From TrEMBL:
The keyword Transferase does not apply. GO terms for molecular function: phosphatidylserine decarboxylase activity. Its EC number is 4.1.1.65. It comes from Roseimaritima multifibrata. This is Phosphatidylserine decarboxylase proenzyme. Keywords: Decarboxylase, Lyase, Pyruvate, Zymogen. It is an enzyme of class 4 (lyase). It comes from the Bacteria. The gene is psd. One of its GO terms (biological process) is phospholipid biosynthetic process.
Amino acid sequence: MNAIQTSDPITYFNRYSGELEQEEIYGESFLRWTYQSFPGQIALAVAAKRVWFSKWYGRRMDSAVSREKVLPFIKTYGLDPAEFLDPPESFQTFNEFFYRKLKPAARPIDAAVDSLVFPADGRQLVVPDISQADGFWVKGQRMDLARLLGSRELAERYQHGSLLISRLCPVDYHRYHFPIAGTAGAAKMIPGSLSSVSPIALRKRLAILWENKRTLTEIQTATMGTVLMIEVGAACVGGIHQTFSPGAVAKGDDKGYFTFGGSMTMVLMEPKRIRFSDDLLEHSAQQREVYARMGDVAGHMVD
């Protein structure tokens, strides 16, 4: 297989169509200018990855005038309003639409006791053993687990762990859910900047993942030990909002939501606890993501 180049199109495997598809990137020309040109790199350093920039953009999406963007966005990106819990006309701002709730039937939760489900809609990438991974999005990029988790102790415990990364695009459903039942602790905020988590950016610099603002929650489970769930903020994401209360949670329960922008969740498991689904293993081995929806099966517990 030829090495992925930073300028290559973003392609992924769609679990439901069974085909490779090219991602329609919101703001692609701006992203490529920012991460693939010298002037863009200067702009990135000055403003684009700064928290104030994302807060400013987030306020625009909370303004009454932003409501005018909702219906054109739905039409342009082919979203299905029949899935929405509330009608499109009811949203007073673009952000209200962005973190909308869906009808329960739109995202059924796999009920098998031994399954792990995707926490969010999006493009999914898995790593069965982080210590053996020689590429994230492109060959040669390795994860700095201690910096990602904000703890050297946790990093040592999970250095051979299994990782599920769910990358949300602006066109995706932007609430995230618990991928497994258990007892959830309080979410811990880890401060940082807010760069894009598009592959356009990650192909250039994986360190974005441990430099961006993020939250970490520990989930004590009966079947897979202690599972870590991480939400990663990104450029133009005005906030990571938790809606759960620490304590007992069911698989598929609402955990929180992102306000406007692309974003990402990660689920990190102890070593040898899970066998990921075959399509995830096949495509992730080629640094290719798989599109799948929240509630669908990501893998099963190892006996």
